[in-house]
Amino acid sequence: MKRIFCPKCDNQLTFNPAKYPEGKVLAFVCPQCGSQFKIKLGRKLVKTESGEIEEVKEPDFSCGHITIIENQFAFKQELPLVEGDNMIGRRNKDTQGVDVPIITSDPSMGRKHCVINVKPDPAGGYIYTIRDFPSLTGTFLGNDLIGKRERVRIEDGTVVTIGATTFILHAAAPEGDKE
Prior knowledge:
Blueprint: E1 2-5, E2 12-15, E3 25-29, E4 36-40, E5 45-47, E6 53-55, E7 65-68, E8 77-80, E9 84-90, E10 100-102, E11 114-120, E12 126-132, E13 139-141, E14 144-145, E15 152-154, E16 159-162, E17 165-170
Parallel strand pairs: 9-10
Antiparallel strand pairs: 1-2, 3-4, 5-6, 7-8, 7-17, 9-11, 11-12, 12-15, 13-14, 13-16, 16-17
């Protein structure tokens, strides 16, 4: 199933793209706001802030990524990280400044919940650190709450819980291991 969002109210809709040929134009009516919109199957296109249409590139996992564990609030998602600070939070149409938006209905996750910093390691890999933004419900590593001003180094496979949502860090392979 493919997920799309209403351009007016940001309501999530799903459909099965396997039922339609590539290049087919599908029309939708949002059940929440009644807005009508169309999408074309095949290439992923997006309208930029300047109003131009450009093709969406595949996600770049070269700096590592996080995997959201599916639960009653969210489906499984794999979201890329970039060098520098990666603000992680709940996706919302009006939220600005979130680099890694998690599509969820989890009310206990903040729109800006925590930050993962990614910086190059002299050995060719990356060093990952996490801190709470601060959020109302806190950020947990395993069962341990991260302090309000604490930065903690995390490694590949680290399990992090924000609100009722859990994700796993997947570190990028060091330069020598890439093929």
